[in-house]
Amino acid sequence: MKGDTVSKLPREGIDDQCVYLKFSLRKLCLVTVILPVSSLIICFVTANIFQKDDIHETHCKVYNVVPSISAITGISPQKYLWRICVAFHVGPRLVIAIVYKQYYSKLLEKENLNGKNWLLNFCFWLSITEIVTLCGVTYISNRENYPIHEKIFITFMFSSLSYMLASLKIFNVVHVRKTNEENYSYKLKKLFFTASILTSFGLFIFFVKHRFLCHDMAFSWFSVCEYLIAFFNMGFHTTVILDFPTEQVTVSKGSERNKTNDVTIFKVD
Hints:
Layout (H helix, E strand, L loop, with lengths): L6 E2 L9 E7 H26 L1 H4 L13 H5 L4 H33 L6 H23 L6 H29 L5 H32 L6 H21 L1 H4 L4 E6 L2 H4 L10
Antiparallel strand pairs: 1-2, 2-3
Helix pairs in contact: 1-4, 1-8, 4-5, 5-6, 6-7, 7-8
């Protein structure tokens, strides 16, 4: 496939089929990941060059060399870039969450494991919660409303880690006999989840040291853990390209006869 395509088959009454748009789900997922990564790097570099005093300020007034994600994305003009990229990031994330739910639902049905639908639904709503709280920490900065920002961030962390664990469980349930590709995807997911858990412990420890004990460099180590968690989280979600390597997103109009020949994972009528 080369880029987006728009094609139309020969018309024969009501049996016409028209494909308005078709593109790779894999490419969509890669763009979805590239947006926050690139904007985060730009925000970090520009904030450290032009607004160093603003991003290193903490309530303890202690020595600090690494700013937090909230610091570099909460100042102007960096916050506008970050918010725009997150806005474009969230849409595909919602689509991917629905695709995963439909995909696993069909596999559970195929393996006669309908009793595990509760786990699938739990995993899906954890994913939605993670996406919603990502929007929350993005659009409600710590400079504007720290108490709310802090609570949303905690919810984001909990839902993110819980989603990873639930996702690993449902993946293992539906893929009893894994192919090499599925096994590789599962191992990567476990690696990113384990790394996220370990860095989350570090995040909590350094947060306590900074917030309550005001140790020098504690906030810098907190920030390092925060960046690692962000990249591990994005790495975990990037494994979608291994789970759906050849699938395509298609907008089309076709007859009922043509529809019966398709396997539909996600459909909006």
